[in-house]
Design goal:
The chain has 110 residues and is mainly α. It is built from 7 helices and no strands. The protein has one domain (3-109): Serine Threonine Protein Phosphatase 5, Tetratricopeptide repeat (Alpha Horseshoe). The N and C termini lie far apart (52 Å).
């Protein structure tokens, strides 16, 4: 493995991998999480939305997008994404994801 690759940041590594697989949802989701950590909510949001608009069954991104929107005071939009996520999780029989989304949703609605 190249020494320069080892010194790269996670964000740089993920971007480099995405150059070879630009539609890889795992990589896009991982990059979005790293961007959140780095304080780049706008970049993270674009990635989460791209993943979910192209692959609505990628259940893990709904929660993180909703939380990002909550932090940015976009509550109605967060609620909308939580609702979409609950429907997708139910369809995929992802009970844990459904419960997390439902809890986040109820925290905002009730």
């Amino acid at each position: 493995m190249c020494i320069s690759f080892l010194k790269m940041s996670r964000i740089d590594k993920l971007k480099e991998m995405l150059d070879f697989s630009p539609r890889d949802n795992f990589l896009r989701h991982a990059l979005a999480l790293e961007l959140v950590k780095a304080g780049d909510d706008a970049g993270a949001r674009r990635l989460f939305e791209a993943v979910l608009n192209e692959c609505p069954e990628y259940v893990g991104s709904y929660y993180h997008l909703g939380k990002l929107l909550e932090r940015n005071n976009e509550i109605p939009l967060a609620i909308k994404w939580y609702e979409k996520g609950m429907a997708a999780a139910k369809e995929a029989d992802e009970r844990h994801a459904y419960n997390e989304l439902q809890t986040a949703y109820e925290d905002l609605v009730f």
